[in-house]
Amino acid sequence: MNSYSRSWLKPTLTLISLVLLTWRATVAPVDPWNLLSPKKIATMILSLAAIQAFGSVLAQYLGTRTGSILTGFFGGLISSTATTASLAKKSKISKDHSPGEVLVFLSATGAMLFEGLALVVTGTTDLHLSNLIIFIGPLLATVGMIVRDYRSHSDQPSSSSDSTFQILPIQKLSLFILAILSVSKVCQNLFGQNGLLVLTSLVSLFGIHGAVIANVQLHESGLVSANLLCSLLAVSLVASYLSKLFLISTLGSTKLRSQAVQRTFILF
User: Which stretches of 129-225 are DSSP H helices?
Assistant: First the structure.
């Protein structure tokens, strides 16, 4: 077995094992507070591992720029928060700053905005321009920043550290996310279901898509007005931006933090 085959043996076996674990895991929470579901935990770890392996393949065969854009976009469709967390952790470990890091961040954000826009368009027949602009405006700004950063950097060969699959950082990152998720769920129980804006912001810290679907359905049922829906969508995006900035600030490198803050300020 050559070195190339050995380098992909570990991620392949890991992903297969995680797929089987996710398939067999139970949905019902295992703790008395109904916070931790084995299937959700396994799914999150699988997503993080898949993003890392997928990004390594794309960077090797398509170059850092194109590979970073595709990694961020497809990872963002799964979970932009998990993708950002994985990116931040990797930037902290890596010795050299890669120009592809900010492309991953922007592409993951763009995927989140694109999916949110699609959910609003397909989920309600009562479309309002204000609801669409909330997503279209930041999406166009994100695309513009991606194009600018793509043109300003040249492709670089991926280093061995970038292409090495490591499961331990993924496990540590999963525990970190679970800890924050547990705290947010406790806060959600304290606020109750009546605080819709608070509930939406808490849910959106870990992904806006569930909050968007729920709020659009409430609007379709006549329980939420168009103006309130617009506010809820805006709260979802703001909470998501803050969540990503928090992850990058606590887990990422100084260079990535500076670039992420600048670009997120534009989106705000």
Answer: 129-152, 160-163, 168-191, 196-204, 208-220
Torsion of CA 137, 140, 144, 149, to 10 degrees: 90
If phi > 0 it is left, if psi is from -120 to 50 it is alpha, else beta; for residue 106 that is alpha
Closest CA to 117 of 129, 107, 106: 129
Examine the pLDDT at 37 and tell me if it is beyond 80.
Answer: no
Terminal Cα-to-Cα distance of the chain (whole angstroms): 51
Question: Could you report the per-residue pLDDT of 126-144, keeping only the tens digit for each?
Answer: 777 877 888 999 999 999 9
Distance CA 37, CA 20 (A): 16
Nearest to 84 by CA among 99, 96, 59, 102: 102
Euclidean distance between CA atoms 48 and 161, whole angstroms = 17
Length of the chain: 268
Distance CA 16, CA 102 (A): 30
pLDDT one-digit tens code per residue, 197-239: 777 777 777 778 777 877 787 777 777 788 888 888 888 899 8
Radius of gyration of the chain (CA): 19
